Amino acid sequence: MDATTFAEGADGTAETWIGRSVARLDGHAYTAGRVRYTADLIPADALHVALARSPHAHARIVSIDADAVRGMPGIVAVVDGAEAGRLCTPMPMALPFRPPHADRAILGRCLADSIAHFAGQPVAAVVAESQHEAEAAADRLAVRYEVLRAVRSADEALGEAAPIVHPGWDSNVVASDRVTAGDPAGAFRLAARVVHGEIAVRPSTAAPIEPLCYLGAWDERLGRLTLTGTLQNPHTTRWQVAASLGLRETDVRVVAPAAGGAFGFKMAGHTEEVLVGLLSRRLGRPVAYVENRRDTMRGHCREQTHRFAIAGDADGRILAFRDSFVADVGTIGPGNGWTMPLITATVFPTVYDVPDIEVDATLVATNKAPWQPVRGYGKEIANLVMERAVDLLAGALGLDPAAVRARNLVPSKALPRRLPSGLNVDSGDYSEALARLRALFGYESWRERQAEARSRETRIGIGIGFELTPEGGARPGAFPSGFETASIRMSPTGDVQVALGVTSPGSGNETGIAQLVAGVLGLRPEAIRVVQGDTDAVPVGTGNASSRALLYGGAAAHLAASDLRAKLAVCAGNVLQARAEDIRFAGGRAHAPGGGSIGLAALALGAHTHPFTVGDGIELPLEATRSYRARNVRVTPDEAGRIATYSSFPYSVHAAAIELDRGTGRVAVLDVAAVHDCGVMVNPALVTGQIRGAIAMGIGAALWEETTYAEDGRLTSDRFKTYLLPRATDLPPIRVGHMSTPSPFHPLGMKGGGESGLGGALAAMTNAVCDALGPVSRRLVTVPATPPRLLAILAEEA
């Protein structure tokens, strides 16, 4: 099915909305400022909480003296870790450790009880009538610490004399993995050329516009908690909060309003989710926590150091690849951010046909804040490393980097194809994507311009980067995992509502879901009401993660709508004296072959009011619930002991042109283009917007964004003056081309599209900077390529 199809549907509908760039159904509400975010929903009688945080990376809490602040204006309560520990248990992990480490202790308490394990860990909560009063009192809270030795780096964590970060563990190794295929040692011995490289990816963060915000409201009469907040995974949060507070899940309602950006950062596992519920139950009033920008910036991730080698023949054919990397994942809390480097290891060798590989991954704990999930989810790092290796091989052989890529791409006829990690890549045409990119970007023209523009002051650099982005994660043990559910109902007046367990991070997935349902029922998308993000109103689901909104949720909605259509077809057949299988739906009406028709509103009213005639032969009411369980997922280990936890494999290829100022180290982005393939696109405009945003994030990660710390472990990149995001003026127009190779494992041919773009942009931009550096580019081993780093390299050249 081509991505731009708008014709008669194969399932009996008169038309399909798949492939149409329908404007966002809620777009006017956002642009007009009518959308209400969590902080807009805080009631006037709510209390506000501020957190006193440890300034030390590792310290014993000797005492907390709250007497001086209890008498301050507006102060209602001061709660420390000891008291919180009596009122709740540690928050369980969103994705538990596997045996033999299933009983490992983590930092699951909402307040540190005796030891602070990272700078910024909350040690006490101050509750007041206003946010200002709470923050003023928290700043004055007298906390005495005994500073302990902290583990500040991955190398230190692995040292024999290193302190153990987590009490009760026998080492600082959190997890490890080894992925192999073929005989890499033999291939390296026989290769004509072997090139070694290193990449240290510095930590960065998601930096959403809207920080975390939670509102807990305990109803004493019902014995029930309502938690409203910046949440990507409402059902997972409900389970975690209920478990920590000793409540039944049905005694907790979780509501996720509109989100001001998420990018993975707002996935389940923030201990403040428990804290506001605990405080509301104790104090009998709603309690709100609104995170400040400084604390939002603590949510770092991506810190990995890779040492790799690539082997090839004289013609640029890749024979083998080897990578060994260590990831500093900080401390381990209830969230699942620490698992991202494990995904990194599974993506190699991405889109390339490399027979022999070896990848070793080691994750270590240090006295830093827990990793927060972020868009890319570790896959972007694998693509960066692989693309740097390909460029290094091309440079060593004196070959064009695009030509080397073309020579090694997996052919489309070889797909589906299993990666060494066990993941089963579904479909694609990588060679065609590269050819289209070269034309879209004007690769040859840029190479000519590069040669003409070389000067002593500036140099143009050109980079290419492929990415393979596994999507639709379905990992055993995750809560929940591998399926999504949709419930659809048509009211007696013909209104259609579909409720799903997926949520929206603000990306417009409601429009895509409405398009899928509308096409099945012969309606327009604006006739469909989509409900998400309320555990009292929607089926159990994962929420927003791994591009599952349309990939899983949309498929479930399509199935449920098909079941509803089947009921409506029987009812229409009863009225129009036709066979149900001959009924067609279009324009809000059911049509019989002879020309007769009936409006769906009238048909719905008839079915509900005349069940023995109009509704004869169906189960009323006009409702249906269906689940979609991912295909292309394998939980039984293969011959290598590997399972397959991702169901779809979108990909893209990117090109970038930059100008490097040799006097200042400044990089100006001149041109960016990408060709992207996520199978059948429901709404191309939404996909294009997603990938453009991801490309901007990838450019930021390549050039500017870095989380930094002082020697004592305190965060220094705590605002947008010290954590540098790309501005609109820093980016040229981002050109995006689309392809569609439908997935054979999805009923609608879709793949995920929510995370694509970041890894390819990160790789292409890094390669472009290295291209501009020329012979000294091998010294660029740290990402991002900031001006100070580039100046230091250029100074060595001089």
Automatic annotation (TrEMBL):
Pfam families: Ald_Xan_dh_C, MoCoBD_1, MoCoBD_2. InterPro entries: Ald_Oxase/Xan_DH_a/b, Ald_Oxase/Xan_DH_a/b_sf, Ald_Oxase/xanthine_DH-like, AldOxase/xan_DH_MoCoBD1, AldOxase/xan_DH_MoCoBD2, AldOxase/xan_DH_Mopterin-bd_sf. SUPFAM superfamilies: CO dehydrogenase molybdoprotein N-domain-like (SSF54665), Molybdenum cofactor-binding domain (SSF56003). Signal peptide: none annotated. The keyword Membrane does not apply. Gene3D superfamilies: Aldehyde oxidase/xanthine dehydrogenase, a/b hammerhead (3.90.1170.50), Aldehyde oxidase/xanthine dehydrogenase, molybdopterin binding domain (3.30.365.10). Residues 32-149 form the Aldehyde oxidase/xanthine dehydrogenase a/b hammerhead domain. Keywords: Molybdenum, Oxidoreductase. It comes from the Bacteria. This is Caffeine dehydrogenase subunit alpha. The gene is cdhA_5.
